From TrEMBL:
Domain LysM: 405-449
Organism annotation: uncultured Desulfobacterium sp
One Pfam family matching this protein: LysM
Region forming the signal peptide: 1-25
Keywords: Signal
InterPro entries tied to this protein: LysM (IPR018392), LysM_dom_sf (IPR036779), Lysozyme-like_dom_sf (IPR023346), Transglycosylase_SLT_dom_1 (IPR008258)
Domain of life: Bacteria
Protein name: Lytic transglycosylase catalytic
Keyword Amino-acid biosynthesis: no
Keyword Signal assigned: yes
């Protein structure tokens, strides 16, 4: 190993000085662009975050979802290669892209192992990779670099789509954050969480633009078989504001509080007790669950904020979606959505768009819009005296909601089998019963079947 490291040092003598100067210039540039921490900015950057913020800016504004960035997971300056992937909507794209990612990562893992173990003079390809480490301590980084090869999918097209979508609610989100006395720039967090995709769902069961999981969402919102308020961007923003305010009160600084949105306040309290302020946590904390996503969460936010604030510099002139204006009425009873659409002369698609918290079981008519629901209507319609809840014909309201069919889980049952047995969608079964993203069920469990049948 000593002989090999000596060989590496000899290579660095030829390329190290040049590479170090280029790297120093590149990393010094953001400071002149306002990346240095500002005392009056509650969401500051730090010198130690510059490389990470620069990396995520490339992810969001340079590389698209048909490009994969092969990089070192600890030092985001080190990008080995950018590979080309198939469009994810093409047939067979997932298997093709997975294979290409595995091949690229395997190639660099093996190359890095050979660099560390070989005694001969490095090849041209090995010299190229060694040059990526020239500005760093080779002994510390190269030894286990093969364990830290990672691929990050580009997000440029998704980020641009999110920018356009954000026009619908961004002003209202800012107003809500001001009302909670929170930094308005927190309005850019959904770019990181969901690309402002109002229908976003994650594999761990998080939903909506703020990506609340079921357990956390239930602390602040209604989530049941007919309503999921996580999917309403305004209701969910109130919930996010309350959660973020809780985090800040507990942790005392916004970078740490914001990271707690991903890592959890308990985890960040432990990190804070061990390492102190956010920058020390970022640089030195190695908690068992404080992985790549948590360490980079705040850097991602800073990159997203910079791009969203100055999107013309990255994407040119684009037209954002028009703001959505809506008024509301409170329903005094259970009612079918088709009856509401007919009464207000509004199509069901419009009601669905204005009321994203209503589950598909309500939109399809399998369940009623529940009593007490705050129904959103096109702006100014609800303020018209002829378009009030009192003017809805009483006979349209139901005194009780539709009954549900239940099924007891038997040996050998899976969510897929039960959904097929009753002719319903698995996702509806998951929503109706608050199942996790893997649709885990247990023997003897009673499952609500989302169906039009009235009998139990």
């Amino acid at each position: 190993m000593r002989k090999r490291l000596k060989s590496i040092k000899l290579v660095f003598r030829g390329i190290g000085l040049c590479f170090a100067l280029i790297t120093f210039a590149a990393l010094s540039l953001p400071t002149t662009l306002g990346f240095a921490a500002e005392q009056d900015d509650p969401l500051p950057s730090y010198p130690s975050l510059m490389a990470n913020v620069a990396f995520w800016k490339k992810v969001y504004a340079q590389y698209s979802t048909t490009q994969g960035i092969i990089h070192d997971a600890r030092n985001l300056n080190i990008i080995y290669e950018v590979i080309t992937l198939k469009d994810w909507f093409e047939p067979g794209a997932y298997s093709y892209n997975d294979a290409k990612e595995s091949c690229a990562k395997g190639y660099y893992q093996n190359l890095l192992k050979r660099i560390v173990s070989a005694d001969a003079r490095p090849s041209l390809e090995q010299e190229r990779v060694l040059g990526l480490f020239a500005a760093y301590n080779a002994k510390n980084l190269l030894k286990d670099a093969h364990l830290n090869v990672r691929m990050q999918l580009g997000q440029k097209d998704r980020f641009l789509a999110g920018l356009i979508r954000s026009g619908k609610y961004l002003d209202e989100i800012r107003r809500i954050l001001r009302a909670y006395d929170l930094p308005e720039d927190l309005a850019y967090l959904p770019h990181v969480e969901s690309s402002f995709n109002y229908q976003a769902s994650s594999k761990c069961g998080a939903a909506g633009i703020w990506q609340f999981t079921n357990p956390t969402g239930r602390r602040f919102m209604t989530i049941n078989h007919v309503i999921d308020e996580r999917r309403d961007p305004i209701i969910a923003t109130h919930a996010a504001a309350r959660l973020l305010k809780e985090n800040y009160r507990m942790l005392g600084e916004w970078p740490t509080a914001l990271t707690a949105y991903n890592h959890g306040p308990g985890g960040m309290l432990r990190a804070q007790r061990i390492k102190g302020g956010y920058e020390n946590i970022f640089k030195y904390y190695n908690g068992p669950s404080f992985g790549f996503a948590s360490r980079n969460f705040y850097s991602e936010f800073l990159a997203a904020r910079e791009i969203a604030r100055n999107y013309q510099a990255y994407f040119g002139e684009i037209e954002l979606d028009e703001p959505v204006y809506r008024d509301s009425i409170t329903l005094p009873g259970h009612i079918a959505i088709k009856d509401l659409a007919r009464h207000f002369c509004v199509d069901i698609d419009t009601l669905e768009e204005l009321n994203p918290s209503l589950r598909s079981s309500v939109i399809s008519g399998r369940q009623y819009v529940p009593k007490g629901y705050c129904l959103y209507l096109p702006s100014k319609m609800a303020s018209d005296s002829t378009f009030t809840a009192e003017n809805i014909p009483p006979e349209l309201f139901k005194s009780i909601r539709k009954s549900s069919l239940y099924c007891r889980v038997r040996p050998g049952d899976t969510a897929n089998k039960i959904a097929k047995r009753y002719g319903v969608q698995v996702r509806d079964l998951i929503h109706a019963n608050g199942l996790n993203a893997h649709a885990t069920i247990r023997l003897g469990q009673n499952l609500r079947i989302p169906t039009q049948k009235q009998d139990i």
